[in-house]
Design a protein that fits this description.
By secondary structure, the protein is of the alpha+beta class. The chain contains three helices and four strands; from the N terminus they run ααββαββ. The radius of gyration is 49 Å and the shape is rod-shaped.
């Protein structure tokens, strides 16, 4: 069967255009409906997230003074640790006086005595200046220097001066010796 459309062409075009307008309108309404359906849950999630953010900011403000105190304590701790390390390095780098005096007394021959003992620090080195006198002239001074050299505490033992003088009709040799104390020994923990 053959179909013949007897409607004028203008009505056919209007009918097509109105169908297109209805289709576009329905599509736009449907798109808006989908957007609204997706937006509502997102809006709720956004409000929940905003509330959570406000609570976190309140908590942060509440703990802010504590955090500031904690930072201050951390700074103080690092300063104190630096001081403690400096003190520990000083202790390590210094020879204990009692040990130095003990080694000197062991090295000292008979008929020899000390008149002055000074220690000075030059950079990282500790230099000990020993002044004394001997009745046996140069023999005991040489023994003393040899004994100091053999000791585990002293290095570079050098005779600086040696002078002769008389006390109560006895000849006495005055001497001055310089020596370096050996480097730092490890700090013994628990002292």
């Amino acid at each position: 069967m053959i179909r013949i459309n007897l409607l004028p062409r203008e009505l056919i075009k209007k009918k097509k255009v109105s169908a297109f307008v209805v289709f576009v309108s329905i599509s736009i309404l449907f798109s808006i409906l989908i957007c609204v359906l997706f937006f509502l849950p997102l809006r709720d999630e956004l409000q929940v997230a905003k509330r959570r953010l406000e609570l976190e900011q309140l908590t942060l403000r509440k703990y802010q003074p504590i955090l500031q105190k904690l930072e201050k304590l951390k700074r103080e701790e690092s300063e104190l640790q630096a001081r403690l390390n400096a003190i520990e390095n000083l202790i390590v780098s210094r020879s204990p006086c009692s040990q130095v005096l003990y080694e000197i007394s062991r090295a000292l021959p008979e008929k020899t005595w000390l008149t002055e003992l000074t220690e000075e620090t030059q950079g990282k080195e500790q230099i000990l200046t020993i002044q004394g006198s001997s009745l046996s002239k140069t023999i005991d001074i040489g023994k003393f220097m040899e004994n100091l050299t053999k000791s585990s505490l002293f290095v570079e033992v050098v005779l600086l001066t040696m002078t002769k003088r008389t006390i109560d009709k006895r000849e006495v040799m005055d001497f001055t010796i310089n020596c370096k104390l050996k480097g730092p020994r490890p700090l013994e923990k628990g002292l």
